[in-house]
């Protein structure tokens, strides 16, 4: 079955290519389908594709689960298999579709990483405020944590977007949607210090952008992330902490202190409340940890 199965996979992927599927998608589907062929070659080498039943597919999915494939990965593999077997059925190459009773697993939403309040205090003390770059970078870090900015929103800020009198910042988020978010005093103070030396960045400053590169130009988002990431690397306890972690920390700390989740949704610029609700799982885990640590009846004690 291995050779005939491979030939059918190749035909199917050629069809997807003519339908305009991206090279990335075709590569992912090839990996998924050939993984099934390898599994069948080991577990049931006598079977042809036309003889496969739902239990064979479930056995394959169980093997992947036991290898600790994520639900997101399993969901993609299920889609790849369903498309392949639907094509085989449409071409009359199989009689029964073994995918007809196989459900697509719901993928697990990863809990966002975040810094503790103490870690954030430590981070915000790192920039050298005796240096113009340190002054600028501290202002940017303070603002991201204070108001939950995305990097693209930080790079796009104009000088007039900061309302010092009312302690607000105007942000242009995804889809050019604007929102107004409060800014804390430490961030406003840091921005004021930066404005005092802003003219020192390049001979001709970009007047449309608040934060400038060393040559006075607007930031490219990727370049901006690289510059600020070096501060996070100094305090991160493990890999996976990025500038977006400051946004996660902003939301998590607000929830921990009792802020309303719908207010946090507005500040983050989430169109759906379900997107914001992932942060409630973080705080619930914190509460559970405290419960198990402190309650005499939470579990067996040594």
Task: Provide a concise account of the structure shown.
57% of the residues lie in helices and 4% in strands.
Order of helices and strands: HHHHHHHEEEHHHHHH
At the fourth CATH level, what is the homologous superfamily of the largest domain?
Answer: Intergrase catalytic core
Might you state the CATH topology name of the largest domain? hpI Integrase, Chain A
Determine the fraction of residues in helical runs and give it as a percent range: 55-70%
> Please, how many domains?
2
Number of helices: 13
Major beta sheet, specifics?
A: 3 strands, antiparallel
Strand content: under 5%
Number of strands: 3
Gyration radius (Cα, Å) is 26 Å
Provide the structure class.
mainly alpha
CATH architecture of the largest domain: Orthogonal Bundle
How would the global form be characterised?
elongated
CATH domain class of the largest domain: Mainly Alpha
Q: End-to-end distance, in Å? A: 57 Å
**Mean pLDDT rating:** 87
Q: How are the strands ordered across the major sheet?
A: 1-2-3
List low-pLDDT spans: none
């Amino acid at each position: 079955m291995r050779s005939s199965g491979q030939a059918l996979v190749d035909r199917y992927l050629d069809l997807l290519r003519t339908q305009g599927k991206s090279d990335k998608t075709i590569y992912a589907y090839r990996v998924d389908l050939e993984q099934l062929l390898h599994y069948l070659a080991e577990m049931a080498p006598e079977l042809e594709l036309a003889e496969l039943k739902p239990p064979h597919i479930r056995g394959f999915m169980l093997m992947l689960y036991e290898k600790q494939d994520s639900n997101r990965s399993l969901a993609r593999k299920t889609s790849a298999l369903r498309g392949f077997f639907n094509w085989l059925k449409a071409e009359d190459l199989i009689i029964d579709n073994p995918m007809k009773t196989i459900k697509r697993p719901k993928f697990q939403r990863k809990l966002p990483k975040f810094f503790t309040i103490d870690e954030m205090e430590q981070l915000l003390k790192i920039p050298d405020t005796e240096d113009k770059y340190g002054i600028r970078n501290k202002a940017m870090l303070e603002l991201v944590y204070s108001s939950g900015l995305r990097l693209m929103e930080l790079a796009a800020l104009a000088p007039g977007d900061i309302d010092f009198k009312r302690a607000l910042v105007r942000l242009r988020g995804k889809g050019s949607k604007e929102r107004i978010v409060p800014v804390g005093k430490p961030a406003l103070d840091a921005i004021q210090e930066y404005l005092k030396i802003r003219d020192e960045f390049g001979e001709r400053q970009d007047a449309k952008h608040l934060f400038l590169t060393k040559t006075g130009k607007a930031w490219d988002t990727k370049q901006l992330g690289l510059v600020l990431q070096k501060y996070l690397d100094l305090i991160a306890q493990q890999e996976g902490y990025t500038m977006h972690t400051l946004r996660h920390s902003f939301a998590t700390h607000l929830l921990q202190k009792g802020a309303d989740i719908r207010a946090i949704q507005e500040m983050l610029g989430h169109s759906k409340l379900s997107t914001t609700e992932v942060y409630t799982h973080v705080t619930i885990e914190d509460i559970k940890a405290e419960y198990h640590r402190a309650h005499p009846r939470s579990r067996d004690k040594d």
